[in-house]
Each structure stands twice: as structure tokens, then as C-alpha cells.
Amino acid sequence: MTAFTLDRLVEIHDDVFAPWIKSLRLMPVEIGDGFCLFCLPQNGDLTRRGGPGGGVICGQAVSAAADTASVLALCAANQALRPCTTVDLTAHFMRPLPEGDVDIRVEILSNGRRMAVTRAEFRAAGSKKLAATVTCAFAYLDL
What we know:
Layout: H1 6-16, H2 19-22, E1 27-32, E2 35-40, E3 47-49, E4 55-57, H3 59-78, E5 84-93, E6 102-111, E7 115-124, E8 132-140
Antiparallel strand pairs: 1-2, 2-6, 3-4, 5-8, 6-7, 7-8
């Protein structure tokens, strides 16, 4: 079987998601065994005034990025796009994410025949400090 590539994740992202999700400019960085790494690049449209450095990334952007990155991580794990729908999304915010690039690590916690669960961790680029976690549950629609 051919390895699933970062380029294939970009193709799926560009073909499947709504235009406002594409405007997040989420970039896959690495595909691993049971996880994927992404970068949410600096984007002034995702920030609000206040917080460290004068602006912070809004929680809505974090939630949308987590959902999108999770679907892409599942594509890599399944070696294909399996149509799915989000059935639960729970976000925990520990500290503000300052303006700038954000590192996202998505771990696949469960990937069954009917359901999948992921956990996304958000950190300011280069930081070891966890800023947010988002757990997503998906129902597969291709049964």
C-alpha cells in the first residue's frame, strides 16, 4: 500500500471543506502512526484584541481547526476520505494562544467501523505549554 502523503491531505482539504474553513489555511506537517501534526499559520482574521502581545486567537478558530485537522488525520489513518459527521466536540482552554503560528497535534484515540474519536492539542508555535485540547467524536456515514 502506498503511504498517504501530506500532498494528499492538502488535496482533500482543498476539495472537501467549505471556503471559510479553507481560509484558516491549515497546513499538514507530519503524518505519524496514529497521529498527525498541523500548523495553523498566523492569520489576523482569527484573532481578537487583548491578551498577550495585543491579540489572541479566538476559541471558535481553535474549535474549527481541531475539527478540520481531526478529519484530515482520520483520512491519513484510513488511507482515504471516509465521509463522516461530527457528533461531539469538547474544548478545554488552558491559556490564551497569542497571535502567531499554532502547532496542532491530533491523536486518534479510536477509529472503529462506525465511530472515531480524536484529541487535538494546541500550542503556540515552538512552545511546550499546552494552550487548548479539543476532543472530537465522529460518526462514519459510509455504512
